[in-house]
Design a protein that fits this description.
Number of helices: 12
CATH class of the largest domain: Alpha Beta
CATH architecture of the largest domain: 3-Layer(aba) Sandwich
Strand content: 5-15%
Number of domains: 2
CATH superfamily of the largest domain: Type I PLP-dependent aspartate aminotransferase-like (Major domain)
Strand order of the largest sheet: 2-8-7-6-5-3-4
Shape: globular
Largest sheet: 7 strands, mixed
Number of strands: 13
Radius of gyration: 21 Å
Distance between the termini: 57 Å
Length: 354
C-alpha cells in the first residue's frame, strides 16, 4: 500500500514557503529569516477569541461589514476568504472576455482568468492607452506587486470609463494600499464595472486568517455572494478582522513605523550596491542580472527573499521584524559583497570574449 499523499494546489508558487526551503537547504525552519512575503512583520496582535465564536456558525450581521466600510470609506462591501477568493471567482461571472493584466504583477490574476477560459494578454502600463479599446477587462494592482508602481486615480477612472461604456470591468487590487490611502480609488465612489479588492494579509500581517473584501456595485456583489455561498469567512476570522479594522491607534502607529522601516531597508540595500528600483512601505524591489545567484546566496544563509524569473530577473525584500533581524540582514549583505564582485568580474570576462 502506497504512503499518504498530501494534495496541494498545482498552480503558482508564492513567498513564505519556509518548510520547502528548510528541506532544500537543510536549515531548520526556526533558523530562517523570511523576507519573501511582503507582509507586515509586526502585524496586528490577535487577542483571545471568545469560545462562543468557535461554537457557532458565522453571522453576517456581526458588525464586520460596518467596520470594514468605515475603515475603507465605502457604503458596502463583501467579506471574502482573502482577496484570493475573489480573484478565483470573478472570472466565472463573465462570459468570454479579452482580459488585460498589467505586467509584471501578481500572477494569480492572469492564472485564474486563463483557467476560466478567457483570452488573457500581458500589457505594460505604457501600453494601456493603446490597448484598452481591445479589452473587456483590465486588471491593475495598485501599488503594483512587485514593482511598487502607483497609477493615479485620474488615469484609473479614465480607463474605467472607457471599459464601462461597453459593459467592461476595471479590477483594481489594492492589497498594498493601506499605508497610502490617499492613492486609493475608494474615495472617488463605487461605480458599475469598478471592482476594488482589499486584504488584511499585508498591512495587518494577518495572512493566516484569510480575510479580504470586495468593493463594487450592489448587483455584482450579490452575484459574487451567491457564487461563494454561505460562511465564506469563518467566525474566528470575522471576529479578528473586525477588531483589527477598528483599532485606529494601531493603524496610525503602524503606518508611521512601516514607512520608516521601508526607507531603512531601501538605504541598507543601496549601501550594498543593490539599490531598489521600486517598492512600497512593505517591501523593496530591484532587478539584477545575477538575481538567482543572489537569491541562492541569501538562502544558504537562511534568509528567504522573493525571486522572480520572468523577464529581467528581480528580487523583492520584505521588512525585518526587529533589530536582531536587521543585523542579520546587514551581515548577510556584507558577506555577499565578495560574491557580487566575483559575479561582476565573470560577467566582464564573458563580455570581453564576445
Amino acid at each position: 500500500m502506497s504512503g499518504n499523499k498530501e494534495f496541494t494546489h498545482s498552480g503558482l508558487k508564492h513567498g513564505g514557503r519556509i518548510k520547502a526551503a528548510a528541506e532544500k537547504y537543510n536549515i531548520p525552519e526556526e533558523d530562517w529569516l523570511d523576507l519573501s512575503t511582503g507582509l507586515n512583520p509586526n502585524g496586528w496582535s490577535v487577542s483571545n477569541v471568545p469560545a462562543s465564536i468557535w461554537q457557532t456558525l458565522p453571522e453576517d450581521n456581526d458588525g464586520l461589514q460596518t467596520a470594514a466600510c468605515k475603515y475603507y470609506g465605502c457604503d458596502y462591501c463583501l467579506p471574502v476568504s482573502g482577496s484570493q477568493a475573489a480573484i478565483q471567482i470573478l472570472p466565472s461571472l463573465r462570459s468570454f472576455s479579452k482580459v488585460g493584466v498589467i505586467s509584471p504583477t501578481y500572477a494569480e490574476h492572469e492564472y485564474n482568468w486563463k483557467q476560466a477560459g478567457h483570452d488573457v494578454v500581458q500589457i505594460s502600463l505604457a501600453d494601456v492607452e493603446n490597448k484598452i479599446n481591445e479589452l473587456d477587462v483590465l486588471v491593475v494592482i495598485n501599488p503594483n506587486n512587485p514593482t511598487g508602481e502607483i497609477v493615479s486615480s485620474e488615469k484609473l477612472l479614465k480607463w474605467h470609463q472607457q471599459l464601462s461604456t461597453k459593459g467592461g470591468w476595471l479590477i483594481v487590487d489594492e492589497a498594498f494600499m493601506d499605508v497610502t490611502p490617499e492613492n486609493s480609488l475608494l474615495p472617488t465612489g463605487i461605480k458599475p464595472g469598478l471592482i476594488v479588492l482589499r486584504s488584511l494579509g499585508k498591512f495587518f500581517g494577518l495572512a493566516g486568517i484569510r480575510s479580504g473584501f470586495v468593493i463594487t456595485d450592489k448587483e455584482l456583489l450579490q452575484r459574487l455572494a451567491d457564487k461563494l455561498g454561505p460562511w465564506s469567512l469563518s467566525g474566528p476570522s470575522r471576529y479578528i478582522a473586525k477588531q483589527a479594522l477598528q483599532d485606529k491607534s494601531w493603524h496610525e502607529k503602524s503606518v508611521k513605523e512601516l514607512k520608516q522601516a521601508s526607507e531603512r531597508l531601501k538605504e541598507l540595500l543601496t549601501e550594498n550596491d543593490l539599490a531598489p528600483e521600486g517598492g512600497t512601505a512593505l517591501f523593496q524591489w530591484l532587478s539584477h542580472a545575477h538575481a538567482n545567484e543572489l537569491f541562492e546566496a541569501f538562502a544558504q544563509q537562511g534568509i528567504l527573499v522573493r525571486y522572480f524569473e520572468e523577464g529581467m530577473p528581480t528580487l523583492r525584500f520584505g521588512l525585518p521584524a526587529n533589530e536582531e533581524q536587521w543585523q542579520r540582514l546587514n551581515n548577510a549583505l556584507n558577506l555577499l559583497s565578495s560574491l557580487k564582485e566575483t559575479l561582476e568580474k565573470n560577467n566582464e570576462s564573458e563580455l570581453s570574449h564576445v
